[in-house]
Specification:
The structure is a single chain. With about 400 residues, the chain is an alpha/beta fold. It has two domains: about 160 residues, Beta Barrel (Lyase, Ornithine Decarboxylase, Chain A, domain 1); about 240 residues, TIM Barrel (Alpha-Beta Barrel). The chain is built from twelve helices and 21 strands. Strand 2 and strand 3 form a beta hairpin. Helix 2 packs across helix 9 and helix 8 packs parallel to helix 9. The longest helix has 19 residues. The chain is globular.
Length: about 400
Amino acid sequence: MDLNNNRYTIQNVDIQSIADEFGSPVYVYDADKILSQYQLLKTSFPGDHVKIKYACKALNNLNVLKLLKSVGCGLDVVSIQEAEMGIRAGFAPNEILFTPNCVSFEEIKMGIELGITINIDNISILEQFGHAYGNTIPCCIRLNPHIVAGGNVHIQTGHIDSKFGISIYQLRHVLRIVEKENIKVTGLHMHTGSDILDSDVFLRGAELLFDAANDFKDLEFIDFGSGFKVSYKDGDITTDVVELGKAITIRFNQFCQDYGRKLELWFEPGKFIVSEAGYLIVKVNVIKQTTATVFVGVDSGQNHLIRPMFYDAFHDIINISNPLGTPRIYTIVGYICETDTFGWDRKLNEVREGDLLAIKNAGAYGYTMANNYNARYRPSEVLVYRGKANLIRQRETLEDLLRNVVDIPIGD
């Protein structure tokens, strides 16, 4: 987002004009930023053996998936529905990694029928997989390294109390099952969490996977998940992916030499690719002053962006309608019937009723976690691509909310 002649723009497209055309609230995504983040990863982890699998749970609009597919990105999915969306977006089954958690074996079988790569994260499913398929269908195994990493307890997935992955301490049990059922394991996977700052976290996890890999003779890839931290505000420390790329590349090459052949190196970034590309544009409904606080009430809430309430996430907020206004302190809140605060005590250029605000870093886990609480509609989505604002999802209507309701006779 740029400020040109006192107007905020994306690829020279005026954001005010986007809101005028498509209404508010509206999610707006910058395709150039999505592609530049992807290219940053490709250059930081060089080589044809490196595969980037976009974690589409972050933002799964088909047009965003098609955009990433167009530049050679693969796909990481966590449900059979995401897998089917990926195939509709043009991904070949062999470009999709399926990493579900606590699903039934029926869903695993559906993934196999689609032809996608299955990543197994518990012993029960591994046993059922072996019983059903033996070595006829290859699989990946997700190990839990018991490394605590991530900016919030809800996004820490590699610690000892996490439901994700098979404990590294159960490796001998896993090996017995693999041997007994003659399972062909072609990949090992870990994901310690999100918002990881320290490259040593990846390297510590890498050593655990490298040690484990020596017990699997058919490996084709090692998957380190993701968790790269993006910047949410000025001065934020972020993951130095260039430094990480150098360190991982050196150690991975050493491992491959010891293993006896070159394997592929996979990563599954989601937030890193799309977070900074997205903005939630909202309109100011009211300015409400109490004895202690000046509230800015907007036409959105936790039903559209739940991260500040659920994760205590910080999202920078700017007034795009009055960029030269005198800075004042406000608390920005939503229109849902419970506390849904986007930001406490924020300094914004003077806010007036009717102004448009932009909530930044809303590309990841914004629309995909949106809901219909209070019977509110989910917003439209717009992708700015090659200098043009394109509607990629219509705003919901009452008919959308009622489509699946079944009427029954009530009363007389």
